[in-house]
Amino acid sequence: MSDDELDEVPFSKRPDWADVVPIEQDDGPNPICPIAYKDDFKEKLNYFRAIIKSNEKSSRALELTDSIIQDCPSNYTVWYYRREILKVIDFDLQEEFDYVGAMGESDPKNYQIWNHRRWLVETYNDNSRELEFIAERLQEDGKNYHAWGQRQWVLTHFKLSLTDELAFVDKMLKTDHRNNSAWNQRYFVIAQQYLSSTPSATSLPQDVIKKEVDYAVSFIKYSPNNESPWSYLRGLYNGTSLNDEDLIKLLVEMKGKYIGCAHVLSLLIDIYVEQNKPESLTEAVKICTSLMNNIDQIHRNYWQYRLSSLESKLNSLKQQ
Amino acid sequence: MSQSFEIEKHIKYIKRNLMALPSPYTSALPNHLSIVYFMLSGLDILDRLDQEIDDTLSTQIKEFVYSRQILPYYQQPDDNIINCGFRGANFIGQPFDNSVQQQQQSTTSSSTPSSSSLCLCQSYPIVACDQSTLANSYCALMILRILRDDLGRVNKKSITNAMKHLQQPDGSYVGASGGGESDMRYLYTACAISFLLEDWSGIDIDLALQYIRSSFGYEFAFGQGPLQEAHGGSTYCAIAALSLLGLLDQEFPKQSVKREKLVQWLVMKQISGFSGRTNKDPDTCYSFWIGASLDMLGAYHLVDSNLVSSFILGAQHPAIGGISKIPDSFPDALHSYMSFSGLSIIQNNNQTAGQGEKFNFHLQSLNCSIGLTNKTANTFLNNNK
Fold it and tell me: What 3 state SS string does chain B have?
């Protein structure tokens, strides 16, 4: 009998379960928001209660958790009990990875499934399947937050190659320029290399910033309105001055080329504010006005707010 | 699709769910109390709590919630203290009547004889897999507050003691004693529980602050953890945690670059409704996560309320009520609740900005950092002053 066929036989009809007396759920006389479970699910839980009561940790109990998890993969208690069983019975690690892998394929955004996977990897100190499995999930959904979280964990926990990871991210970004999760992963790698390793560092080294600006710009050239590389570029300067001659030259050039690109204008305003000179602020006011009135009308209220703040900065400078 | 707020249909939607949830909600079993919270807080926002929940029903719901409390075992009160709090549902065979030992009175019928020194213990031993989760404890306390319960039968100390064990060396929290992911969501729920219990002893605040700071990413918004992608949900959790701790303005001083950039990130998530991450599509739940974050930062007036409200109203189900994730799709409890909250934030911000009747959906205003109406929050906040 295959697993699927076996699954169709109710537990109450299985000879090897005849010794177990199922226990009903007790929700009291007036349950609120009761869930209309299907009968077979209700029955599985009835048997689960009996197993918990007798504290049975066996392969048939494992099979029962398997069956409940299929219906309710978010049930953290059942997953917990499954791990308690695995701790005491003999089982095949590859089979367990296959099982949690299949679950992860059909329900890739479930916390418990990812958590169980992480537990297996950590407990049995075996990361041999991880990067490939995660890459497959990311091929299906490049922005899966769980998958990226697991990836970062594996990379740091096992100190895996960040150079290889940079190549992986590059491949992901070539597939979808707008994948902000992949841009974040690039920042993760750069930060691991240059920030986390030097706890005293508050900003990236200048040569790294230049190299990464070039990388971002190479994507901006294809689609200037893609917010992700702009956000990345701005983030590189976190903790350091934006008032950089090369950057300004580049942005002014792009401003002329990409007419109507809100991102380049927004960044220029930030630089002009940092410069805090009358001519810079006058230019910022001009740019902000066009964002408000023409280029980015959805965020009109916001640009209006920035405009008033720019104008008051300019006025106070003029009065000095 | 409708552009007026169909309040009566939503009331019916909630009442139907209170009676029974369809089988697709099976996966919500372990977090059942969150669904109950969405429905009751929803009624509260829609300003129909008193009308729809009479005293009998209110008592029944409170008993139901209290039946989910995991209390220290009266014979070994120090055993498995880490499991205490509230579970999502009684699905591993716990008795409904957990026989809380109370001196004054026993509201459930078959309590074992009480002993005066054994207040708030349970009559049966705790088993290892009977675990509370922070999310369910948080929802249980919120429901009790909505129903004007004084939390008199909550063993507060056992919850804060359990919480101490859930905080990780990096300052974040795991959601349950059985393990699992640790992130900003649970850090927020830990803060919310402390706030509701008026007891912060379960949190190492300096450590929590460190985690919050280290999760502020290059996009000037928060991820679920350090170096994770900036996300509307985790950004809400971080800002609301800071707000409950009374540290929001200290961590993000007014006019500081980081506050200004955070506000800009939030504002730029507006596409029509809000999206939760850069280059993602809008979703009604972010009308709360992003909207509430902006509200706490005093910056909601910087977005286009017209577009947000149209997006939400367009996602109402024309026949059965409720609100879905995106227009032309099926409603669910979470997105309905988040959308009611989102509309309440719009209404409140436009009232103070003098926008008149246009955004008056006849909703109660929201305390954005705790996720209750101000009407409910004030019932216990005022007591503390």
Answer: CCCCCCHHHHHHHHHHHHHCECHHHHHHHHHHHHHHHHHHHHHHHCCCHHHHCCHHHHHHHHHHHHCCEECCECCECCCCHHHCEECCCCCCCCCCCCCCCCCCCCCCCCCCCCCCCCCCCECCCCCCCCCCEHHHHHHHHHHHHHCCCCCCCCCHHHHHHHHHHHECCCCCEECECCCCCEEHHHHHHHHHHHHHHCCCCCCCHHHHHHHHHHCECCCCCECCCCCCCCCHHHHHHHHHHHHHCCCHHHHCCCCCHHHHHHHHHHHCCECCCECCCCCCCCCCCHHHHHHHHHHHCCCHHHCCHHHHHHHHHCCECCCCCCECCCCCCCCCHHHHHHHHHHHHHHHHHHHHCCCHHHHCCCCCCEECCCCEEHHHHHHHHHHHC
Beta bridge partners of B85: B70
Q: Which residues pair with B174 in a beta bridge?
A: B182
> Using a CB-CB distance cutoff of 8 angstroms, which residues of chain A are in contact with residue B36?
32-33
Test mutation, B70, B229, B258, B283, chain A, max A CBs within 10 A: B229
Give the mean model confidence (pLDDT) for residues B90-94: 85
Say how many residues make up chain A.
320
In whole angstroms, what is the distance from residue B235 CA to residue B184 CA?
Answer: 9
Q: Which of A115, A145, A266 sits opposite B180 (nearest CB)?
A: A115
The percent of residues in chain B predicted with pLDDT above 70, rounded, is 91
Residue B176 forms beta bridges with which residues? B133
Q: Flag whether pLDDT at A230 surpasses 80.
A: yes
- Chain A hits for B35, CB-CB cut-off 8 Å, are 33
Task: Give contacts of B90 with chain A, Cβ < 8 Å.
Answer: 25-27
Say whether A111 and B180 touch across the interface (CB within 8 A).
Answer: yes
Enter the ipTM: 0.95
Residues of A in contact with B267 (CB under 8 A): 299, 302
- As annotated, the active-site residues of A are 109
How many other CB atoms sit within 10 Å of the CB of residue B354? 6
Find the CB nearest B29 among A30, A72, A266: A72
Looking up tokens 């006011």, which residue turns up?
A285
The whole-angstrom separation of Cα A165 and Cα B224 is 21
pLDDT tens digits, one per residue of B173-199: 999 998 889 999 999 999 999 999 999
In this complex, do A25 and B27 lie within 8 Å of one another by their Cβ atoms? no
> For the packed helices B257-267 and B286-296, what is the interaxial angle rounded to 10 degrees?
150
Q: Which residues pair with residue B216 across a beta bridge?
A: B222
> Going by C-beta distance under 8 Å and a sequence separation of 6 or more, which residues neighbour residue B46?
B7, B10, B11, B14, B340, B363, B364
From the list B25, B94, B270, which residue is nearest A35 (CB)? B25
**Is A227 close to B61, i.e. CB distance below 8 A?**
no
* CA-based nearest distance B22→chain A, Å: 5
Q: How many CB pairs under 8 A join A and B?
A: 194
Bridge partners of B222, per DSSP, are: B216
Q: A177: how many CB neighbours lie within 10 A of its CB? A: 16
- pLDDT, tens digit, 9 for 90 and up, residues A173-227: 999 999 999 999 999 999 999 988 777 788 999 999 999 999 999 999 999 999 9
Model confidence pLDDT, tens digit, residues B239-296: 999 999 999 999 999 999 999 999 999 999 999 999 999 999 999 999 999 999 999 9
Q: Measured between CB atoms, which of A32, A84, A149 is closest to B60?
A: A32
Q: Are A36 and B99 in contact (CB under 8 A)?
A: no
Mutate to test the interface with B, among A35, A71, A80, A153 (most CBs of B within 10 A): A35
